[in-house]
Amino acid sequence: MRHEFKFLVYFIFLCIGQRALADAYDIPKAVALENRKYTIVHDLTFAAGYLPIDSFNKSFTLNTSYLYNFKTYAGWEVINASLCSNQDTGLKSNLLNNFGALPTGFLDYYTSIVTTNFVYSPIYAKNLFFNEKVVNSETSFVGGGGMVGFNSGATAPLFGVGMINRYFLSDSTSLKLDARVYYHTASGKSSNMILMLSVGYSFNFGSVGK
Q1: pLDDT tens by residue, 70-112
Q2: Within 10 Å of residue 114's Cβ, how many Cβ atoms?
Q3: Can you list the domains of the chain with their CATH numbers?
Q4: How many CA atoms lie within 13 A of 87 on its CB side?
Q5: N- to C-terminal Cα distance for the chain?
Q6: Is the pTM of this model over 0.85?
Q7: Where in the chain does DSSP place strands (E)?
Q8: Using an 8 Å Cβ cutoff, are 183 and 11 in contact?
Q9: Within 13 Å, how many C-alpha atoms sit on residue 33's CB side?
């Protein structure tokens, strides 16, 4: 009985030691990394957007932009131009009726925004939609500056940052979801912050399917 007990204890420690040794010297697992399926050189985008954060004026926008990628992960958005259509929230009228007056700056609203930006695209992914379709995507971070125009005729410098999610539809087209935050230097306005949310359709000239 004593010999059987010793044998059992020896067997247990032997199994534990082998397991620990196997974990310590486990063979590295190979991970396959794939290159990007789509590489964009020139990108022309047409988009529709919305400016939601001003309490006095909301705006719908029509946007167009041109992007040149000098590397697969970096590029220059040469121009991003937006025309803004104002939607009065009614808050100005309520304040005028209740309190009699408003600062004139509050009556001003955006008519145009033009910027140029650096684009950094470090993330490329494959997404499985509804367990049926694989869609390639790219995540980009943008930063730059430009000018904003107001209904009064005034203009002001602005700068900002943002993020773009691009979903490739083919070698030459893609869908872009774009969110950007700008800060402008004009005084006497209802807000110095601009949040622009947009959805765009892009034509990718010079893209290469791999």
Answers
A1: 998 999 999 999 999 987 666 666 656 666 655 555 678 899 9
A2: 15
A3: 38-209 (2.40.160.20)
A4: 9
A5: 70
A6: no
A7: 38-39, 42-51, 57-71, 74-88, 110-129, 133-150, 155-168, 173-184, 193-205, 208-209
A8: no
A9: 2
